[in-house]
Amino acid sequence: MKIRSSLFAVMLCALPCIQSIAAPVNDEDRISVDIRRTTFLVNDIDTSLQLYRDALGLNVIYDQMINSPMENGEIRKRRLVLMQANDTFIGALGLLQYIYPEKPQRQEKFDEPVPSDPIMVMNVSDLDTRWKSVEQSPKVAVIEAPHHVEYPRADGGKIAVMVSMIRDPDGYWIEVNQLLDAPAKASD
């Protein structure tokens, strides 16, 4: 029960991210910053791709080995995969695997998100049909299966969302949600 109430609090804080029907910002309202991509460091890109590409349906737009010299004369080897959903400029997800030298693993693990843990929120329009593939992806831990949650609006109304929470193969917290009402707006 503690996990559920903590996750609800985290999701409530993330409510502004629920807006699934995005529109470009008017030129006069634009600021000088765009958030283009989030990159997850992963142990095995091929395992991660089974979740993000195969189960969630993100489109791979870049998949390259990156080799660069290190000070000791050896070659640093990394593989970077970039994926997109519906927008070609924002919202990309990167997967980066250090092949040589390998990176050390984080040791602490918690049963719920804690400060410094990112939570990626993804909205899908077909959670009911996509969920089985998500939960059966290799090394995915289901924290909460899809369930109905209603978030409050400022005018007293509600925003209905089917909410689910997983941990991906590398331990990243991922909400896979389906918005059932009009998205949140600034007045909410």
UniProtKB/TrEMBL annotation:
SUPFAM superfamilies: Glyoxalase/Bleomycin resistance protein/Dihydroxybiphenyl dioxygenase. InterPro entries: Glyas_Bleomycin-R_OHBP_Dase, Glyas_Fos-R_dOase_dom. Residues 1-22 form the signal peptide. It comes from the Bacteria. It holds the Pfam family Glyoxalase. Residues 37-176 form the Glyoxalase/fosfomycin resistance/dioxygenase domain. Keywords: Dioxygenase, Oxidoreductase, Signal. The keyword Transit peptide does not apply. One of its GO terms (molecular function) is dioxygenase activity. This is Glyoxalase/bleomycin resistance protein/dioxygenase. It comes from Paraglaciecola mesophila KMM 241.
